[in-house]
Amino acid sequence: MPVHKDILVTKTHGDAAEHEHVAVAIKHAFSAAQRQIEDAVREMRGQVKPHEPEDHGRVSKFVAGDDYGFIETADGREVYFHRNSVLENKFDRLTVGSEVRFVEEMGEKGPQASTVRLVGKHHLL
Question: pTM to 2 decimals?
Fold first, then answer.
């Protein structure tokens, strides 16, 4: 890559039982590599701002079959997110009410969440 960044996928993963299946481990490894490449491309294009503040919210709608959902923000807005934005392959662990941290950015069709991080099953006050 022109920026001389290594793409590294380790064998460490939080759900070791799931990775006993080779196909699942390979799929997750390629997904992790793809995210790293996409991050490097955004950085090369100047689209990445260092240490963007994360907002808090909770999943308000969830469409697992279509790989997307919406996050309700602290000020009551709904922000779209896609499976690819969810870190650590935890998209399948999300449910309505899951608390998340995320970075909001402007997408082609309006605000969207990126780097969505599951933080627990607590509800925001």
Answer: 0.55
